[in-house]
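G.,

No rush on this.
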Amino acid sequence: MVLYILIVCSNILLIVVICMNRSLHEPMYLFLCSLFVNELFGSAGLFPFLLVQILSDIHTISASLCFLQIFCLHCYAVVEFFNLAVMSYDRYLAICYPLQYKTHMTTKKNVMFIALAWLYPFLSIFVLISLSAPLQLCGKTINKVYCDNYSIVKLACYDTTVNNVYGVIYTIITIFGLLTLIFYSYIMILKVCFTGSKQTRQKAVSTCSPHLASLINYSLGVCFEVFQSRFDMNSVPILLRIFLSLHFFTCQPLLNPVLYGLNLTKIRMICKRLIFSEK
């Protein structure tokens, strides 16, 4: 409960700071705002369900609520990846083409990137759930603390080739496309850092460090999820399995506001003025 309150308060604080200060109405901060909104969305897909089960000591969930949770958590994961990819491209343009940055990152493009980061996951996950919902299940037990699509598909009584093919194609297209954008952006940033001035290197370090930390934490969370879903984890202690299950949906929403709130000077200074204004 305390963790959920911290996540909600920290992300809402930074969303309000960005929205209320015109000096932060720049592409990087707008993408950050989208990221923080997604942290609230993902947390809302996990914690209320989890808290109800803990407080009521009931470990069952209806099919409709299970699929709702699958939709929220899967969308959260993909929107998060999209936002991080778009932010890496934004940093690439800001560092490698500072004079042309405003020309490349217009308001229209910002809106287009943010809309794509949300609409593509929502539509693709909707199709994924539309394929899974009609499945007849031969079991009722999911060995995780929340619902996920692969666990439902594994319980199906008959052939799930269509689900598997769609899942593989969707995953490959999404991961390959976004990883290509991220790797290209950082390769070009590194190239400029090695050949550019000290000021360019300082700018790259100050703005890319929180993004890289967030990206690494996200990647670790995804790896944990893949191991949990695809491999037999019965030999792993139950507490460690629960931690690995919850890491992705708890650490990322709390880590991002801390990383960006502390590392980005503009946000840090405005937050200080807000918190300590009465003193």
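When you get to it, here's the other one too:
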Amino acid sequence: MSFWIVIREISEIEEMAASKRVITREEWEKRLNGVKIKKDDMNKLVMNFLVTEGYVEAAEKFRMETGTEPDIDLATITDRMAVKKAVQCGNIEDAIEKINDLNPEILDTNPQLFFHLQQQRFIELIRNGKVEEAMEFAQEELAPRVEENQSFLEEIEATVSLLGFEDATKSPVGELLDISQRLKTASEVNAAILTSQSHEKDPKLPSLLKMLIWGQNQLDKKAAYPRINDLSTATLEDPAVRNVGGRV
């Protein structure tokens, strides 16, 4: 991957720098311009992000414009996003049905995911004020999960404790009723479906950006150089206006 060339360049500069030194913009840009990144590699990186995050229309348009082929059938993205949306909307039974339509083995081979979906169903019952139905569901669906796997006990106890509060949002685990909990479950479902399709569960681009930040932090110990502080613009900040370590 071309990114490793950049890392190698950074390492070379580190080796050259016995003490902190200032690398001018001209010198830095010369080094960067010497790194040749294939357009095809960049296109594959973009397609990987679009496919993994579920932007099916954008992926199709990008395929037509660049000729970059996705590594999975784009039709499966629509199905995956339908499942994810169902979880995000709190329609857990519908989500489970859609998952089984996609691939029954996903839940059969992933008891933790199935438990978290059942947990989310319970949470949605509490959210909708269906307390009696929630109690029955806990006894019939959640309790047996502990018998199958003791590792679920702590999560089940915390979740069921919502029943002990008239206003469940004010309980010590009230955050389970936040939309963020739905998003967390939806993300887990999305990752499981991708894994079942032999695709990475996370896009490569965020990982590369983290590596860039790590590389810059390592170089900060050795030199002052034109640093990228705003990843959204990728603007190089001249070392003359900052101290080593990134502090203005």
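The longest strand covers residues 21-22. Strands lie at 21-22, 223-224, 227-228, 236-237.

Enjoy the weekend,
O.
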